Amino acid sequence: MMTVQASKSVKAIDEIDPDAPIFDPKAFRLNDEQAAIIATARELGQTVFAGRAAVYDREATFPTENYRDLHRAGLLGIAIPRKHGGLGADYQTYAISAAEIGRYCGATALTWNMHVCSTLWSGPLADDLEMDAATRAEHERRRAAHYKRIVDDGAVYSQPFSEGGAAAAGGVAFGTEAKPVKGGWIVNGKKIFASLSGHADYYGVLCTEIAEGKKASRRNTLYLALPAKTDGISVAGDWDPLGMRGTVSRTLLFKEVFVPEDAALMPRGVYFQAAMRWPHMFLTLSPTYIGLAQAAYDFTVRYLRGEVPGTPPVKRRMYPTKQIALAQMQIKLEQIKAIWFQAITEARANPSKEQVLRAYAAQYSAMEGANEIATLAIRTCGGQAMLKSLPLERIYRDSRCGSLMLPWTAELCLDRIGREALYETGESDD
Ligand SMILES: Cc1cc2nc3c(=O)[nH]c(=O)nc-3n(C[C@H](O)[C@H](O)[C@H](O)COP(=O)(O)OP(=O)(O)OC[C@H]3O[C@@H](n4cnc5c(N)ncnc54)[C@H](O)[C@@H]3O)c2cc1C
Fold first, then answer.
1. Which of 78, 123, 393, 426 is 20 to 30 Å from 102 at the Cα level?
2. Threshold 0.90, pTM exceeds
């Protein structure tokens, strides 16, 4: 048994703070405003959400109390411009804040992402896209109403996108249809895995506008905020999954739902433009998993040091095998953090091909890497560490869900990187 340790390294280890920021503001050159917003998210996660996470997971119930706290802390409006009463965070600041929340409650971070995207996509992202002056003015008026509901009333938005077919992967037009009628649309369709079902105040539905006799086209995708209590909307099916249980991602059904024009979160044609020109919009599911990767690592450090609350103070850190495993986890974590930080920092309109490939690689690294680290954590900490009384097994189960998230599943990232690295647009071997 290896028991010798240099006193210098003991002192250095004693200085480790397992709840230190994932991205140290100085080291990663974040400004004071960014650091303050991220610190708010981290402190809420650490002091409040961590203690509630086990119950939401066990009962597969929605973290309603966390959403009240997010509202009180201003975090429901994190990406809402300051002039509308929000915190005015940019993409990078939001992404790091979401990682900090995911570190303490994966389901809260993942559902918060669906909510924040309604403001990020209609806000800073839409500002980068082309619209004529009249359309932009109309969009400004409409989004102000959405923002007011969030900031003043704590309204929560979800983002039902998936339908079980090829649409969510970007292959074909959404099957959920919006038929234009006087003053708005009539929406019919079905969304599967719709996180926040029965809990959001507004469902931010991606659907296809189809006028009578016309064909469905991805170019005509609409992003509409349907008030959850509208006639014709129902929630169906049960929810008892492996992980991310608190997301309550049940099926949503829309039957002849009238939606007024002001429900548009983006003007006509702008979602399609965003999907083409602002691809990092699909990277926003990854922050949660960066948080989970960090959480698995933090747990392992604490556990091997005999410092996990509620467990006997047995140290396991003196075994070389544990030290090597932890070193492998740390290396993996730093690799994931580095590529991911770079990708979220360069998110913008019209990225270069290299930046797009890096975004896929960052998504793949975060989603697969979080689960690899959690797997290694379980093997390293051992049987007692995977009891349901401790968070590690939840982190492990939650982390398994990352690579399933469309449109950038792990498989689709591999598919796109391989193809796009070998072919220029329009090139073929025929
Ligand atoms: C916890 C959780 C929460 C979720 N929350 C939401 C939400 O709020 N909103 C929402 O819209 N969705 C949500 N999803 C759904 C998620 O984004 C996927 O749509 C869902 O997991 C797809 O499941 P599926 O069985 O229909 O996959 P399929 O579409 O059958 O795909 C199975 C696998 O095949 C591969 N594949 C799919 N299409 C292609 C293709 N065209 N080419 C090559 N390979 C392909 C992918 O790798 C995919 O993982 C959530 C999922 C989970 C697990």
1. 123
2. yes
